[in-house]
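Model it.
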Amino acid sequence: MKIEDWFSDGFESNLSGRYLNLDHLKPLYEIYNKEFNISKLGVSELGEEISLVEIGSGPFKVFAWSQMHGNESTTTKALFDFFKFLSKANDFKGEIRSFKKKFTLYVIPILNPDGARLYTRKNANGIDLNRDAQNLSQTESIILMSAFKTIQPDLCLNLHGQRSIFGLESGLPATISFLSPSSNSERTITSSRKKAMKMIVKINNYLEGYLKGKIGRYDDTFNHNCFGDFFQLSGVPVILFEAGHISNDYLREETRKYLFYSFVSLFGLTDSKINIASYKDYFKIPENKKNYYDFILRNVLIGNELEKTSLAIQFKESLVHNEIKFIPILTEIGNLKNKFGHKEIDGDLANVLVNSQNIIEIGSVISVISNKKDESLKYFDKNCFEF
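Modeled.
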């Protein structure tokens, strides 16, 4: 059986969508506690439990954490896909047995449960936990640092999600991005960075078979307040994962699949043999750019203006009654020459109305963009995207 065949039926179907908090995980903890060791590390600022999942008994220790930013849930879904694979994939019993003998995997599925419940990047006190590695001002930060010191890992996996604004110079979206963080402001290629780079090359070479040209490399500017940079400075290889966007996948169900493939590739659980030439191939992965919008309407006229322009819309994610709503916001008006849209329409020099008005403002919530001469001809309405 191929990995993709297993995933199509075997992924963790109890988790879906963008909103994922501790209530969604508790039933799964009860299931997996029969096979894996699940322990309580402590509680968040608002008293929600922070758990550690331990799998395997091998000498090489890997420490991973997800939802450090509460609204970045895609990697958490992929982790539970991986947990289910390790528990239920009967066609890969030999590979899984070898994995458990070689590795001990430690995972904090949700480091920021308060932010997860509120669907916010920051924790309950408005602190970005990934800028708290030095101050350790928050309970969650102290728990992460304590776990790192106790486990003494050989590799760290720092699991995040990135907005749909990220793409590549080629014009393709950055569906998944990786980083071997710097350990100083000079961005020195240390031994630990080389090790992480080489692992990223391995994952990248495997994923290229599925995501050709849609894999990015994250900016490596050093920030000693970030946990990944701090752990790398400690001499432990760190891989940052950023789960991004692919066409029409606003719930990130496709992206989670490629993250799962990343995990099975990293741990050698695939049937594919990848030759790794050099850590230097890491620098062949194109760097991320903020060059994407969710929607662009090109070549239109507004009001009495005679010069053509383009309109860009970006969705704002908002938690409403335990469901994520995607609110279209007018974000930029102009040439947009070097920008791309996940969906684009050419207005062919039509004069348009935005929300039935000639006058429009950046930051406006957009309900509809229509042809001024025939308002039944719509270029955008909030129902033209599937979420």
